[in-house]
Amino acid sequence: MQAVKNCSFDIQKGTITGLIGPNGAGKTTLFNMIAGAFAPTDGRIVYDGKDVTGLSADKLFHMGIVRTFQIPHEFERMTALENLMMVPPRQKGENLFNTWFNWKSVRQQDREVLKKAEEVLEFLQLTHIRDELAGNLSGGQKKLLELGRTMMTDAKVVLLDEPGAGVNRTLLAKLADMIQTLRDERGYTFCLIEHDMDLIGRLCDPVVCMAQGGVLCQGSFEEVRSNEEVLEAYLGSSAHDSQEGGAA
Asked: How many angstroms separate the CA atoms of 38 and 32, rounded?
């Protein structure tokens, strides 16, 4: 059985594309392939006009394709600030030679990374947990920190895997505002997997619905949520019936 098959859609630059579908539809598997966790056995993944099919996650990371996870992957025993400072690649301090013979350059870069990390924490309104161990943060704070880690890179396309899962409504509204701000003011492109239809409706255009590994339909949120096939495959016939009952 194929987890993803005959699945084709575009993520346009500067959009927040929503990816919905029932459990087992292939959404996370698709993200794993796009982000380089494993290569597809067939088909192509094209990014900015280049065929990137099968490229490793680190190569895609350096090209600007970054992903988050449904369960945050923070460094539990490092502070929130340290978690952010770990992200930028090719830091000079990672080279032992530089720490001995080019230490002024290392210190200068460290100051720049520290400044950027503090700016990210301020943007995320997380300055109050700057020195808190990441493992002690709430689920919502960890999701915000995951978003912050994408801001520490030169991210161009950010794949968000269920950013709303386990987040209380107050923090979820804050998270949505920040995603919109990053798109509107910093030119980020997002694709997000999400089951919270309120969040999808607020943020996403277009919306793509997957089922059984392929694209069932795509369009605006209103078009997708009223599609008969979506109501059957994603919401279930009982949900459709209850809507009809309510209309009556």
From this structure: 6
